[in-house]
Amino acid sequence: MDLNYSVEERAFRDEVSEWLRDHLPADLRQKVLEYRHLTRDDLQRWHSILAQKGWVAPSWPQQWGGTDWNVVQRYIFDEACGYAGAPPLVPFGLLMCAPVLFKFGTQAQKERFLRPIYCGDAFWCQGYSEPGAGSDLASLRTTAVRHGDRYVVNGQKIWTTAAHFADWIFCLVRTSPAAERKQDGISFLLIDMRTPGITVRPLILMDGEHEVNEVFFDDVEVPVENRVHDEGKGWTVAKYLLGHERMNTARIGTSQRELEHLKEFASMQRKNAKPLIDDPRFRDKLSHVEIELMALSITNLRFLDQLRGGRAPGAEVSMLKIKGTEIQQALTELMMEAAGPAAQPFAPVAGNDRFDRFMASLAPRYCNYRKTTIYAGSNEIQRNIIAKHALGL
Amino acid sequence: MNFDPSEEQRLFAASIERFVARDYTFETRRRVVASHDGYSRDVWAALADLGLLAVAIPTEYGGLGGGAGDLTSVMEAIGEALIVEPFLATVMGSRFVARTGTLEQKNSLLPAVASGKLTLAFAHSEQGARYDLAHVTTRARKTGAGFTIDGDKRVVLHGPCARTLVVSVRLAGDDTDQEGIGLFLVSTDVPGVSLAASRTLDELRAADIFFADVHVPANALLGETTCALSTIEDVVDYATALVCFEAVGAIRFANSATLDYLKTRKQFGVPIGSFQALQHRMVDMVIEYEQAKSMASLACATVDAETDPVRRKRIVSAAKIRVADACRRVSQESIQLHGGMGMSDELKISHTFRRLTMIAQQFGDADHHLERFASL
Ligand SMILES: Cc1cc2nc3c(=O)[nH]c(=O)nc-3n(C[C@H](O)[C@H](O)[C@H](O)COP(=O)(O)OP(=O)(O)OC[C@H]3O[C@@H](n4cnc5c(N)ncnc54)[C@H](O)[C@@H]3O)c2cc1C
User: What is the ipTM of this complex?
Assistant: First the structure.
């Protein structure tokens, strides 16, 4: 047994880290490290830098810009970016819409949509969830009725991340309300966000930030050529995408960076005239998270090793999501706790020019990270998946 | 043994519950926290009319002479409705005055508090002090007939609306000595006092308060004592017992909102409350509530009756630990079980989450109180 990366893998990791050191703009990195809000321009800038290097879409087929890296290299790359403090890539185009197009899209669709996704010219968002359809996605009710060469879409999506700055949305819609199984009446549509009849309304989360939206469709006309796969096959598409989740859902690299940050932060805070990190109670909690992360990073590698052969991941992804998000939440909680009473302020009142924005970002960040166990398939749903599909319960 | 409230306590409870139902809906609160001052003078006047601001004031000074046990229903209602008015800060301030003030100080402040004319705040916490009550670096020196104060206070809750502050200062000794701490009554409009105000995560107003060469007369020294740490501990323990009851109210709301949601939210054709994985978690939240309420009751009874400070500290710390754990568990679970809706600013549950998160650390987090409990 050898738990280390091979010589080639290590060389690859060094190459990536070195490149990141030279090309990740300091101001973007600083924004990430200080938990500041990233604008569309910020996200696009980093996207373009990676696109120019040819590293923005490693998992794509090579002819479309993929890098031909194996699963381990892809993992190394993702984790190195997270560890370095690179802005996240918006996943909806690169990692959701694109794989669907590769598998089910027509040649015309590929030619039309993939290049702008690669270059970062078109941002996408994901229109799955509805007020009545969250965990039970198949009960969605947004309808698309066909009139000649167009669909007319009516209904509402909710929690749509990035809809306020996205150019396109991919949606699950109901095309045959009468289908016997509710999964059978669903189709997958690509919709231009500028189409008349679309209204985007912000939904403010409990940290006061605007990242998700409600999207209303009122007689929105969508050309039939924007349907991916056959009518009524939307559920097949959605399931394919679920099975195609990446192996970095655990976000080990990001958490490793956050853990180091937490240690550094806790050694600057004082308790009883000593660094907080020397307080046994705090240190024990920190150590527990560190150990959990250590275990998960090896678990992640073990799973990767098993997948080298090309088998599609199953319950592994769910386990990584559950543990990864629990660790992310624990880290945000300890950061808030480390700040102590200084974590109370949230926003300055007019005239306060001595406000410490970093301290004030820690508690809202703890609040915001509660989302991680809810979205992308809640952790309860992930446990159901493991129980049902891996354990046969 | 008798866990029933007295007739008088029942009346307080009924009047605050009526007030909240009619005049402090979540929509009202939303307007209040967005307003310029971040609290409502009308609400404050209404609380005064109901007699609630007089409960804890001694009878000689226009109050009802009640204790923590008489305030539990008020605190519960504050927690349930997320009331942002400076009730606890004012109760703390008036307890300082009632405990140690001179006759003149009591006469000039306490009746004004009881009638709703005066709000107070306790300016104590400092940079790097964390939860250590003896960490006081703000200095007061004797100058002429009075004193001069210099130093900074951090995140003084309700500081922006208080007209009078109870300020802890160091009169002698090193920064964290137990001895040599005094308390001053300082008006916020005295030259040299400046405020940098903020909104807190739980939507209260707070201020960093800076004292630069602030001259106060000799009679501003509260109770003429240079040995105020034990008073500070007494008042903070009293407030801690009360905030535990505020948590109980907030937890009760979180639980009832979540239970409601489990019964009404349908997925997969059934209420999500029919999933056993969620049922057990709801049950655990209810057990947390009961355990928290027991310890909050014990703490309030203790601060009213216990004369031995060591026993008082032990019980109050035990209560705060238990309540902090309940705050954390119930707040986190209530959001999780609400799914995406729990994350939304629109729903009251996310604001209850924010308050519970802050109560868990107010007057010392669980680690701080574990250390104190274990050392006694
Ligand atoms: C910040 C954020 C961003 C999001 N971004 C997007 C996006 O871009 N696009 C998009 O389409 N969606 C998005 N979502 C929606 C997200 O996918 C849903 O919130 C999620 O699927 C849960 O659905 P729900 O909110 O309706 O909760 P519900 O499904 O109503 O669940 C409520 C609770 O019940 C539990 N539960 C439900 N069913 C079961 C069961 N069978 N067994 C046990 N427990 C169960 C859940 O785990 C949860 O705890 C986002 C959500 C958030 C919070």
Answer: 0.97
Span A249-390: which CATH code?
A: 1.20.140.10
Confidence of residue B264 (pLDDT cuts 50, 70, 90): very high
A272 touches chain B (CB under 8 A): yes
The neighbour count for residue B359, using CB atoms within 10 Å, is 24
Of the candidates B206, B268, B353, which has its C-beta nearest A345's C-beta?
A: B206
Please tell me whether residues B112 and B151 are part of one structural domain: no
pLDDT of residue B227: 87
List the single range of A288-292, A307-311, B139-143, B250-254 with lowest mean pLDDT: A307-311
Distance A374 CA to ligand 1 centre (A): 5
- Where are chain A's structural domains? 7-89, 124-231, 249-390
Q: What CATH number was assigned to the domain covering residues A124-231?
A: 2.40.110.10
Residue A280: CB atoms within 10 Å: 10
What was the pLDDT predicted at A89? Answer: 95
Catalytic residue among A245, A290, A333, A337: A245
Q: Residue B69's pLDDT is what? A: 95
User: How high does pLDDT run on average in chain B?
Assistant: 97
Residue B306 lies in a domain: yes
Partner residue facing B353 (CB), from A204, A206, A354: A206
Residue B334, domain extent? 230-375
Task: State how many domains chain B has.
Answer: 3
pLDDT at A246 over 70: no
Residues B272, B347 within the same domain: yes
